[in-house]
Amino acid sequence: MAKTAVAYKEKMKEISVLSLICSCLYPETHKNIMGDFEDMDIKPINKRASGQAFEVILKPPSPVSDVAHCVTSPPKRDISLEDIQKKLEAAEDRRRSQEAQVLRALAEKREHERDVLMKAMEENSNFSRMAEEKLQMKMEQIEENRMAYLAAIMERLQERERRAQEVRRNKELREEVTA
Question: Taking the chain, what is the end-to-end CA distance rounded to the nearest angstrom?
């Protein structure tokens, strides 16, 4: 089937080239000039407005044409033991090279993972250190504020105590003056 399709395509190319050459050489149209090919028949169909139409009928392939189209494969050359050894060594080298490449890729991947892990651990430790420093500063600030608050309370108590003593002394002086 494939042979007939290929033959059909080739003949169609020949027909178009042939009709082009004929139209150049014989500008007047001839109604019944059809090519005669050995493996196909061409019959004209009534003329249409768009041009001519043809019916192409492929003949069944003959046994002679099958033999002509059969192409023999080139003879195999003898392969020596050295050639086989070379091919095996080349295959082994390719395998080793591919294996080394895979190992390199894995090593690079592990190195990248290790770098990412180290970076994450470093960022985590930096964050922990910064958080600890921030907490320490906050605790120091709270302690300073507490000490300042206690000092202010003590100052007010001492001021009250002084004021109370002054009032007591003034009261005693008034009592002594009135007595």
Answer: 150
**Are 98 and 47 a contacting pair, CB within 8 Å?**
no
* Alpha carbon distances (Å) from 93 to 79, 96, 99: 20, 5, 10
Kindly report the number of other CB atoms within 10 A of residue 168's CB atom: 10
Per the model's pLDDT, the better-predicted residue between 83 and 49 turns out to be 83
Q: Maximum Cα–Cα distance for the chain, whole Å? A: 167
Tens-digit pLDDT profile for residues 1-44? 677 777 777 766 666 655 656 555 555 554 444 556 667 777 77
In angstroms, what CA-CA distances link 160 with 155, 156, 157, 165, 167?
9, 6, 5, 8, 10
Q: What share of the chain is helix, strand, coil (3-state, %, to 5)?
A: 70, 10, 20
The DSSP bridge partners found for residue 58 are: 40
